[in-house]
Amino acid sequence: MLYDLSGVTDALLGVVSTAWPTAALWTELGLTGPSFTPTYTGLAPDAIRDASGAQLSLFMYHVELNNAQEAMFWEPQMEGAALAPTSYMPLALNLYYLLSAYCEGNYAEEQQAMSIAMRLFHATPIISSDTTATPAWQVNLTMERRSYDELSLLWQATTAPLRLGVVYRAAVVFVTPETPPSAPPDVSTVTVQVNSTDTVTVT
């Protein structure tokens, strides 16, 4: 579980930025190291459209409930089992990201950035939080199939020119629920002092 959705975005970007200097593509191109390094960002493509150099954007554009986890939540209630109020249950979410790259006047760097990112995400389908993160979390990352029409509408919504892009889903993300109040003390039996010598036990 986690408190902050941006932690997932940062972890995904960290997978790419950490492995970028030693990505297999550089060796395949006969290079000893990166020929360029993009700007990594979680901002929407239209927010960085005027930035210089190569850009790699991983934009969280949609969040929805995870249906499977929601069904698991209601099943015990349908069977009559006592269950904590909804506010004290983890919020199970699917996060949808648009991964895109852009470099003014250099299509090769755009496509190389996407090549490296997609290869890394394919090789690392399970993303975990930093070992120091509290609470710890883990998500599965999958590439989503989207039609050209769906992607076109998505790009129109960002008001950025159409770019090479692909959609990923990070699931299941559990948002930490509210902390339930502590249980009240057991008062089923109370001893009452009647006077200086006598006591009465009330059940």
Description:
It is built from five helices and eight strands. It has 203 residues and is α+β, with helices and mostly antiparallel strands. The protein has a six-stranded mixed sheet. Strand 7 and strand 8 (199-202) form a beta hairpin. The relative contact order is 0.19.
List its salient traits.
203 residues, alpha+beta, six-stranded mixed sheet, two-stranded antiparallel ribbon, 29% helix, 27% strand
- Helix amount: 25-40%
Instruction: List the total number of helices.
Output: 5
What class, by secondary structure content? Answer: alpha+beta
Give a count of the beta strands, DSSP E runs of length 2 or more.
8
Indicate the topology.
Blueprint: H1 6-19, H2 24-28, E1 39-41, E2 55-65, H3 67-78, E3 91-102, H4 107-123, E4 126-128, E5 138-144, H5 148-158, E6 165-175, E7 190-193, E8 199-202
Parallel strand pairs: 1-2
Antiparallel strand pairs: 2-3, 3-6, 4-5, 5-6, 7-8
Helix pairs in contact: 1-4
